[in-house]
Each structure stands twice: as structure tokens, then as C-alpha cells.
Amino acid sequence: MLSEIVDVAIVGAGPAGLASAIKAKEAGAERVVVIDRAEAPGGLLDQCVHNGFGLLYFQEDLTGPEFAYRLTEKALDLGVDMQLETMALALEPDKKLTVCSRKGIATLEAKAVVLAMGCRERTRESIMIPGERPAGIFTAGTAQRYVNVEGFIPGKEIVVLGSGDVGMIMARRLTLEGAKVKAVVEVLPYVGGLIRNEVQCLVDFDIPVLLEHTVIAVHGRQRVESVTVARITQDMEPIPGSEKAIECDTLLLSVGLIPENELSQMAGVRLDPLTGGPFVDEKRQTCVPGIFAAGNVVHVHDLVDYVTWDGEIAGSYAAQYALGRSQHKEHVLNVRPGEGIRYVVPQQINTETNAETAVLYARVKEPAENVLITVGDIFKRRFRAVKPSEMVRIELPTEELRKTSEDTVTLSVSH
Fold first, then answer.
1. Residues facing residue 162 across a β-bridge
2. Does 381 have pLDDT greater than 80?
3. Cis before residue 208, ω within 30 degrees of 0?
4. Residue 361 scores a pLDDT above 80
5. Residue 407 three-state SS
6. Which residue, 224, 232, 228, is CA-closest to 244?
7. Which of 241, 253, 283, 387 has the smallest number of CB atoms closer than 10 Å to its CB?
8. pLDDT at residue 94, rounded to an integer
9. What is the pLDDT of residue 120?
């Protein structure tokens, strides 16, 4: 078995992984390796041919492939080693990574590791939709790849279950390709994706939305022939008498994402049950020293720009760890979700950080207007509107952090 010693090994060549590699190189790491099972870097960006990427990071309106190309070119120019069509099989707590490629099985003995594996889609089995098992049921991301990369249209009459961003984007994409989107069905009392996607993909194309509804049955032997939808109670139970059949040949599922953390668990990384990703500090370091995590593997972000910035943080500090420049944690402040907050990341902050601010990302439990968000006695600010699908970004001044003697603070939302 081949063995190689590297400074920083990064698992995943999506925007978080590429940004990590770039920053690790710029921070002085000499041997930086990116592992990815795909044949090309960029993660899922290559199948996202719509625009809207990079408005914050590049201050330009780019498509997904354009965003990926810029990061890839910069990484290659810096001398990052891209090991593509390579599968990460195992990760040990001592940062030994076992990989498999056409060359065989090899090990990378890394001084620091960045986990940037992203997330996967929930399937029909995940949400247990009853009914027959015909062809014509796809996750929204799979349909996106079929249309934008492979050049196939999955169906002519579509029902979309879930109003996540990819589901809404595919409702528009398929409409533009001549398909008929019969309805977008959502269990929540509000659309679950970004407001801009709700307007640009559903409202502008007059696509019907059934809120507080779900699909309770799939019909068809060889191919989907129809689905039955029903209004649901607050306990997610179908209301008798509200059932309605919708004829269609395709059901797309946009019902949530799961961070890919099998490798994290192998390495003994502690996962947050609220996010499905690792507990991390402001450096994006996990509970295992020298193992960092960034992007959607930590929690599902709403913008690729935030994913990229997250990768930059992890890559920079991973390089410092590999080079022996890691800062000692003088005082760790734990941050926990409080009233009205679903989760907060990072979960720990070193109050002696050299940065001027520490940035928190949080998601609220429900939409609300004119709310007050507080972080202990450190931060207090009123927000005009908040929504679960759009992350709340909070900057905590380091000066205020150093004043606190508390070990734990709570992030809460109130009216």
C-alpha cells in the first residue's frame, strides 16, 4: 500500500474544499491535497447552470460552473494536488486517510485534515411515502443533473414535493423546457427556500403551491400515473376528506439535505444532533485536534458564498495547525441555541482569537418580523424579518467576548 505524508488533506472538491485548499496554500502549507470521487472539481456547481452565484463573494452574478471554474483555476495555479476519481474510505483520529483510486489503495498521513464532503438529498425512503414503486420518482438534484448535464428531461407532467431551493429551481427549469409543473407541495405553512427563488421560480412562472400539504400515496405500476396529496395537521397527519389526486408522470423530491459525516464519525468527531454536522469552534476545528470541517458538511448553508468563506476559515487554520502555529485556547465560550433558534454554528469560540470579530450563523424555528436577537449580554440587535430558510449572520466584537467570564451563552430570538 502506497503511503504519503502531506501537510493538509481536504476531502471534497466542492466550493468549501477548493476554498480550503486555496487558503491553506496561501497560509504557507506546502503539500496540499484535495480528494474527490468525481471526475472533475467543483462539486454540484457544474450542474447548477442558473445564475445567482458569487453575488457576495465575487461581487458578480455568475452561474455555478463559472463559480467553480474560478476557484479551480486559482487552486491549480497555487499548486494544489487534485486527486480526482478517488474515494476516501476511512479516516482515523491520528489524521491518517485511506483512499482508493485506479492506482489502488493508498494512505495519506496528514498533519491536518479538512472535511468538506457536503451533503446528500433525502430520498423517498427517508420520508416513507407509501404507495407503489414505479419509475419516475427522482430527487430534485438528480433531475437537475439529468437536465443540465446529461441532456434528458425526466418527465412531462411534474409534481414537486418540498419547496427547497433546488426543487423550486427545477420547477422553473422544467417549465422552461416545456414540461408542465402541476404543483409544488409543501408541508410547512410557508415556502421553505430563499425568497428570491420563491419569486423568480414560482411566482413569476405562475406555478401552483400547496402549503400545509404532502403526498400521501404514489400510483402507477410501470411509471408514475398520479399522486394523492392531502392537507395535514400541525402534527403532520393527513386530514380526512382533504385528499386530492394529481395526474402526473414524475414526482420530484426536494425534502431536505443530510450532511455527509460517515468519515467524521470514523475519526471520532462529535456530531451536533441539531445540525447533523460536527461541533466546531470559530476556526472550524472539530473536537479532534487537527481535523477541521467546512461548508455543508457542518450545516446546510443557503448560499455558496457562505460555503466558500467557511472553507477559507477551515483551510487557513488547518495550515496553521499543520505548520505548528496553532493558537492555544485560553478561554472557550460555548454558544447554545435558545428560544426560537433551531441551531447555531460555530458552537464554541475562543475569546482570545486574533480576529476582530467572531461570526455566528443561526437558523430560526419560524418566520417572524421585527424580532430581537440576543447573544447573552454580548450582542443585541433587532431584525426586520427572519425566516428558517435564510441564515441569520451575527458578528460578535472580540472586545465584548473578552469581557465575559461566562462559559456558556445562549442565542435567542424574541419579539
1. none
2. yes
3. no
4. yes
5. coil
6. 228
7. 241
8. 96
9. 94
Strands (E), 208-318: 209-211, 213-219, 226-231, 244-247, 250-253, 257-259, 291-293
Please tell me the distance from the alpha carbon of residue 400 to that of residue 379, in angstroms, as a whole number: 8
Is it the case that residue 330 has pLDDT exceeding 80? no
> Which DSSP string do the residues of 170-210 spell out, in sequence order?
HHHHHHHTT-EEEEEEESSSS--S-HHHIIIIIITTT--EE
Give the residue from 345, 362, 341, 349 showing the smallest Cα distance to 298: 345
Q: How many residues does the chain have?
A: 415
56-60, long-range: CB within 8 Å, 24+ apart, which pairs?
Answer: 56/303, 56/305, 56/306, 57/304, 57/305, 57/308, 57/309
C-alpha to C-alpha distance for 329 and 315, rounded to whole angstroms: 19
Joined together, the cell numbers standing for residue 244 give: 386530492
Cα separation, 154 vs 386, in Å, equals: 35
Q: Which three cell numbers stand for residue 348?
A: 464554541
- Helix (H), strand (E) at residue 290: none
Q: What are phi and psi of 47, to 5 degrees?
A: -95, 0
Nearest to 297 by CA among 255, 317, 269, 316: 269
CA 63 vs CA 55, 68, 223: distances in Å? 10, 9, 33
d(CA 293, CA 297): 7
What is the distance between the alpha carbons of residues 61 and 53, in angstroms, rounded to a whole number? Answer: 6
Alpha helices in 245-303 (DSSP H): 262-266
Q: What pairs with residue 90 in β-bridges?
A: 98
- Rounded CA-CA distance 58/98 in Å is 35
State which amino acid sits at residue 78.
L
Contacts of residue 125, Cβ cutoff 8 Å, sequence gap at least 6: none
Residue 319 clears pLDDT 70, i.e. is over it? yes
Q: How confident is the model at residue 327 (pLDDT cuts 50, 70, 90)?
A: low
Residue type, 411: L
Q: How confident is the model at residue 234 (pLDDT cuts 50, 70, 90)?
A: confident
Q: Which of these, 258, 273, 320, 250, lies nearest to 292 by C-alpha position? A: 320
Cβ within 8 Å of residue 94, ≥6 positions away? none
